[in-house]
Amino acid sequence: MAKYYDVHPDNPQPRTIGQIADSIRADALVAYPTDSCYALGCRLGSRDGIDRIRTIRKLDDRHHFTLVCQDFAQLGQFVRIDNDVFRAIKASTPGSYTFILPATREVPRMLQHPKKKTVGVRIPDHVVTQALLAELGEPLLSSTLLLPGEDEPMTQGWEIKDELDHVLDAVVDSGECGTEPTTVIDFSGGEAEIVRRGAGDTSRFE
């Protein structure tokens, strides 16, 4: 049964954020809001969390997981970025974008694309997510909360609690967030390739 956390959207309660972070460190799988839509998140090195996300979403091993980072300095520890790509990403963060880039050795192999050795990274523009990332001190391993057969992600905390109570450890609710997932830009080949058009404006990458 998933624990339900009601978090203020503008002034997240530090004690509650601390409890959520502690549960993630203890290998919890949580549903949490972002600036695009709800996501599933777990500890960076959690094999159990990865397996559970794959099961819930019915994902194969070619799916790009995303490291949700607090800031650009943290993001830079996990992916390799050249100068041109650096400028493009810096100008777009924080925001509703996921960038696919070559992974560094800091990224566990089980998170990397099996052939390309890439990983997704993003910096969200969301008060609650940022508070949680600051408390954790490391990225959240994440995937959009889009269930198999559905066209849109889930948007309400109570609805997620009701639907996924038996497979999640916690649901973080700070009010409704968007229904559009992030825009995904693949920079692994050096040039910007738009993989998915979502909440982020794509004009600067075209």
UniProtKB/TrEMBL annotation:
Entry EC number(s): 2.7.7.87
Keywords, in A-Z order: Nucleotidyltransferase, Transferase
A single MF term (Gene Ontology): L-threonylcarbamoyladenylate synthase
Residue stretches making up the YrdC-like domain: 14-200
Keyword Nucleotidyltransferase: yes
Record Pfam families: Sua5_yciO_yrdC
The organism's place on the tree of life at top rank: Bacteria
UniProt keyword Nucleotidyltransferase present: yes
Protein name, as recorded: L-threonylcarbamoyladenylate synthase
